[in-house]
Amino acid sequence: MATIFGINLFALSGQLLVGLINGSFYALLSLGLAIIFGLLKIINFAQGAMYMLGAFFAWMALNYLGINYWVALILVPIAIGGIAILIERFLVRPIANEDHLYSLLLTFGIALILQGLFTHLYGSSGLPYQIPAELKGGTKLPFMYLPNYRAWIIVISLIVCFSTWWVIEKTKLGAYLRAGTENPQLMQGFGINVPLITTLTFGFGVALAGFAGVLAAPVYSVSPEMGSNILIVVFAIVVIGGMGSIGGAILTGLMMGVVEGLTKFFYPEASTTVIFLFMVIVLLIKPAGLFGKEA
């Protein structure tokens, strides 16, 4: 058994892997929240419900329509994004100029309705979703056994997160997007359809939650509570990273997953509270968050 300073490296590596997987989901979900709040100033409390919906849509597509994991990984986020566009157009936009609290309460209500509906339809027990055949098995490393599907989650999440950051921060499309949300009247004067940009941005931010839901389906049981269980943690991560900071949401999501994994190894009793403790410390030292800008 490989050890260093009395620490079991196999057990430590296993917890770090779990932390990175959780961090990948945290990063995807908090990225969607950061995009929606940072660019549109909407607090989307339905992000967790859309994550749950993504997992359920993948399960339903497989069991009712025979649509496999790979096709679901493309179609489900598109479907979730389409639902989000309808929500933005007909429910969120009419209250867009009101206090942020209105959008928070509206999306919280949507989350409760979706969770209640799926609990009524499928019960609260988890439903299994098989790992795709191409990603079964794993690789035996000197210090741990690395399951292929876990490695896939980490790699594809990093690609999606940093591609999104690059498009928003480094491309002309991202510049139009940022300018359109900061000064919509000016951009409309240049012929830019700002309402359309707003709707598509909201749809994309929520589609990231659907994408994370499909990735999570083979790892966790598909259940109506899976979204509510992760939502509070993700909001804490967004606060730690800095509300609206897109890069901060990604880095903080991954970092908090690792911190949580290390805490489970060294002091399991604190693993469920360490992220909130971290949030309190950050808010006391830097109220705008680690990557946020002071007002």
Briefly, what CATH class? Answer: Mainly Alpha
Helix count, DSSP H or I runs of 4 or more residues: 11
**Which architecture name does CATH use?**
Orthogonal Bundle
Sketch the topology as an H/E string, one letter per element.
EEHHHHEEHHHHHHH
Distance between the termini: 52 Å
Q: Which term fits the overall shape? A: globular
User: Helix share of residues?
Assistant: over 70%
Tell me the strand percentage band.
Answer: under 5%
Task: Please give the largest β-sheet.
Answer: 2 strands, antiparallel
Description:
The protein has a two-stranded antiparallel ribbon. Strands 3-4 form a two-stranded antiparallel ribbon. Helix content is 71%, strand content 3%. Helix 1 (9-40) runs antiparallel to helix 10 (246-266), helix 3 crosses helix 8 (194-216) and helix 9 (226-241) runs parallel beside helix 11 (274-285). The chain has 295 residues and is mainly alpha-helical. It has one domain (9-285): Orthogonal Bundle (ABC transporter involved in vitamin B12 uptake, BtuC), CATH 1.10.3470. The chain has helices spanning 9-40, 47-65, 69-92, 100-122, 148-170, 172-182, 184-189, 194-216, 226-241, 246-266, 274-285, and strands at residues 3-4, 7-8, 138-140, 145-147. It starts with a strand and ends in a 10-residue tail after the last helix. GO terms for molecular function: transmembrane transporter activity. It is a multi-pass membrane protein.
